[in-house]
Amino acid sequence: MRLLARPRREAMFAVYAFCRAVDDIADSDRTVARKKALLAEWRGEVDALFDGDPKTPIARALIGPVQAFGLARGDFMAVIDGMEMDADGPIVAPTRAELDLYCDRVACAVGRLCVPIFGEPGETGNSVAAHLGRALQLTNILRDVAEDADDGRLYMPRELLEANGVPVDDPAAALAHPGFVDAWRALSREAKAEFAATQAILQQCDRRKVRPARIMMEVYRRNLERMQALSEAELADRTLSKRLVGRTEKLRIALRYGFL
């Protein structure tokens, strides 16, 4: 984000702060009722933001970006809706439709807030948000299956698990099932296809404007490719994160794609 001009950079930091705030509510150890109450407060604050009278520092920081870049109220609300899906209880083997909705809310909606700030509003920018958001979210799901299972969560689509004979009601049992790796690899191919679609759309964009999106894509795509190259035994290794793109490599990617 630091590659962006100052007004765009500050707008991105404000959007990130909003996303971080609502995500922290969903991931907290508060009761479901308290989480939903806090998220409802944020819905009120988004309404206040678009009415020109927000109260929180984060929402006040978003006044300028909303006006300058035409950010949509519905996208802020969609992010909150996605956080409420997590807050309602652990998501376990959602249907395809539920997973698509979740990805749209927690990832693609964030992308729709970002692309006008980058300088690519309209249908092309929204297409980047749709495909890249889904690619990033699926990669996160594939990366975090073991950690999520420890928390009683399983974001793999129900239909894909059932097609491979994997039980869908117990995340730990699902990961231990012989068919899980095949289901995991099938979802990884879907993520790879989303990265390919993103790449094609980015070629239609002004390269300078979409540098942040390109950098994010390259980092996550490398993570996906490395995970896909793992053996069945390695996929079960809980030290997997140590083999993914680290800080130094991220810097090299930023230098390579940030100044093309």
Describe the protein's architecture and organization:
- This protein has 260 residues and is an all-alpha fold.
- The chain has 2 domains: 1-77, no CATH class; 90-258, Farnesyl Diphosphate Synthase (Orthogonal Bundle), CATH 1.10.600.10.
- It has 14 helices and no strands.
- α1 (6-27) packs parallel to α5 and α7 packs parallel to α12 (211-228).
Features:
2 domains; Farnesyl Diphosphate Synthase; single chain; mainly alpha; 260 residues
Entry summary:
Helix content is 73%, strand content 0%.
One letter per element, helices H and strands E, the order comes to HHHHHHHHHHHHHH
Number of strands: 0
How many helices in DSSP terms?
14
- Estimated structural class: mainly alpha
Q: What is the rounded distance between the termini?
A: 15 Å
Number of domains: 2
Overall geometry comes to: globular
CATH architecture name of the largest domain: Orthogonal Bundle
CATH homology group of the largest domain:
Farnesyl Diphosphate Synthase
Strand content: under 5%
- Main β sheet profile: none
Q: Residue-averaged pLDDT, rounded?
A: 93
Question: If you compute it from the alpha carbons, what radius of gyration comes out, rounded to the nearest whole angstrom?
Answer: 19 Å
Query: What is the CATH domain class of the largest domain?
Result: Mainly Alpha
Low-confidence stretches: none
CATH topology of the largest domain: Farnesyl Diphosphate Synthase
Q: In which range does the helix fraction lie?
A: over 70%
